[in-house]
Amino acid sequence: MALSTPNVLPLYSKRAVQPPRTRLQTFMVYMAFIGLGTFYGLMMAYLPVGMMMIPTIPIAVMFLLSLWLLPDINIWDDPAMHKTFLIFMALFIVWPSYLAFAIPGIPWISPTRIALFWLMVLFLWAVATSSKLREEMVTTAKVSKPTFYFLMLFLVAQVISLPFGNDPVAAVQRAVNNQFYWTGMFFLACHLFLQPGALRRFLVVLMWLATITVLIGLWENRIEQLPYAPYIPSFLRTDEAYMARILSPQARATDGYYRAHSVFVVGLTFAEFLALCLPFLIHFGVTTRSTVNRALAGAGYVLFSAGIWVSHSRLGIVGWFESNFLYLILWSTRRMYFRKSDMIAPALTYGFPAMFIGFIGLVSVWQRLRTTIFGTGAAQSSTDARIAQRDRAIPLILKHPLGFGAAQGSDALDFRNAGGAQTVDSYFLTLALDYGILGFISYFGFCISGAIRGLKTYFRTDDEELLLSGPLAIAVLNSIVIKLVLSQEQMQPLLFLFMGALMAAAFRHKMAVEAARTGAEIDKSALVLARG
């Protein structure tokens, strides 16, 4: 049997590359470069702005081909990837998405996008040059096979929906963008959070970033305008009409309450972000052994609750109650299982149905609580609009089951609010309109199956960091409920990060269980803890 050849590049030849041998050949080479440059210049000059991405397709293909041809060296820079990831997350949360440099013909350039670009360069380089890393990510993602296959189906749904919208070029641009912000974040989390301590460190940083947004929101609520609005330099004001709409006081026309939105575009997204973060703050407060950390978690809980309140968002209030109730029942059930002699946990667990019924009764008799959760007549117009959108969207979805492509469903539905602006107020409708019935089923299958896998990890592990699977699952469930009444996608990268973190935690628990069963140490190489 022949021996396999080593997987290394052959020695480079010392012979110099031969230039063209005749003047005619030299002339033809120069003319080819000049012709190519002229062709690209004409396309940039005459193509509409919406079609500027067409000249980049050959460049993108060559870039991907170059990545594919890179040698498999199994060495990558994990510390740089971790640092760049944290920088990206800090900018993603704190830097307003509407503050960017605008250059005609190309997308807005913001610090967040620059950080994402560098993060993806590091990540794609590592993936392209390491078969070990590719195998690790797929193995980690497949720890929950339903979650992995639902994600693959969601990717298929995004692709097959592209030709059916009014603007396929814009749909392709948005779909490519989503792969960086969504799919890329999922697989990046599957890799980064395998390292012990990385998940907890990320969530602690996230809590501090959320605190900054809350402080800005509280300041904004007091003065009824964004505190930094008068100081935005002109070169960051990309679209004056768009900026004026965001920076102007946001209040519901029917009741006049100011709705703080902090660094986000609308107060609904601000409330959604805090509702996604709240389960982690509750978890840190309950599980920490440090009095100082418990005091910090308590102060953060009050701040986050205040931030949700000043957003005047019903979805934020629903997320607040959902976070508290779900964490209470999960914590008490797990505590009852692990501490047989404990009396608090059984009382909370078995008493939860009575508490829930009592809460329902309290809502029915306490007018202020009922209006806080379900709104008053002032919010009836929003409810009526959502019903009208649903009634118009369902026949359209059934007629076009493959969808209209990324960000094209709103144009297809063409529903306009009282101000004449085109809008869709439920992500359930947006998913079905954009990616069709397959996209709708696969997306929610992806989220629900991932949350279930996270809950299994939470109830089976005794590792303090892996216990974060519980609040991660609650955050994912919060997102599903919130998407009933919110169509904004600004928090989708965070959701996909949470899903990747759930898979990484589940894989780490699986490795620990297998090591305990065999009596061996955890395979460090399987967790890729020893970096090249």
From TrEMBL:
<feature type="transmembrane region" description="Helical">
    <location>
        <begin position="27"/>
        <end position="47"/>
    </location>
</feature>
<feature type="transmembrane region" description="Helical">
    <location>
        <begin position="146"/>
        <end position="164"/>
    </location>
</feature>
<feature type="domain" description="O-antigen ligase-related">
    <location>
        <begin position="300"/>
        <end position="444"/>
    </location>
</feature>
<feature type="transmembrane region" description="Helical">
    <location>
        <begin position="263"/>
        <end position="284"/>
    </location>
</feature>
<feature type="transmembrane region" description="Helical">
    <location>
        <begin position="85"/>
        <end position="109"/>
    </location>
</feature>
<dbReference type="InterPro" id="IPR051533">
    <property type="entry name" value="WaaL-like"/>
</dbReference>
<dbReference type="GO" id="GO:0016020">
    <property type="term" value="C:membrane"/>
</dbReference>
<feature type="transmembrane region" description="Helical">
    <location>
        <begin position="115"/>
        <end position="134"/>
    </location>
</feature>
<feature type="transmembrane region" description="Helical">
    <location>
        <begin position="201"/>
        <end position="219"/>
    </location>
</feature>
<protein>
    <submittedName>
        <fullName>O-antigen ligase domain-containing protein</fullName>
    </submittedName>
</protein>
<feature type="transmembrane region" description="Helical">
    <location>
        <begin position="291"/>
        <end position="309"/>
    </location>
</feature>
<dbReference type="Pfam" id="PF04932">
    <property type="entry name" value="Wzy_C"/>
</dbReference>
<feature type="transmembrane region" description="Helical">
    <location>
        <begin position="53"/>
        <end position="73"/>
    </location>
</feature>
<keyword id="KW-1133">Transmembrane helix</keyword>
<feature type="transmembrane region" description="Helical">
    <location>
        <begin position="344"/>
        <end position="366"/>
    </location>
</feature>
<keyword id="KW-0436">Ligase</keyword>
<feature type="transmembrane region" description="Helical">
    <location>
        <begin position="435"/>
        <end position="454"/>
    </location>
</feature>
<keyword id="KW-0472">Membrane</keyword>
<dbReference type="InterPro" id="IPR007016">
    <property type="entry name" value="O-antigen_ligase-rel_domated"/>
</dbReference>
<feature type="transmembrane region" description="Helical">
    <location>
        <begin position="315"/>
        <end position="332"/>
    </location>
</feature>
<feature type="transmembrane region" description="Helical">
    <location>
        <begin position="466"/>
        <end position="485"/>
    </location>
</feature>
<dbReference type="GO" id="GO:0016874">
    <property type="term" value="F:ligase activity"/>
</dbReference>
<feature type="transmembrane region" description="Helical">
    <location>
        <begin position="176"/>
        <end position="194"/>
    </location>
</feature>
<keyword id="KW-0812">Transmembrane</keyword>
<feature type="transmembrane region" description="Helical">
    <location>
        <begin position="491"/>
        <end position="507"/>
    </location>
</feature>
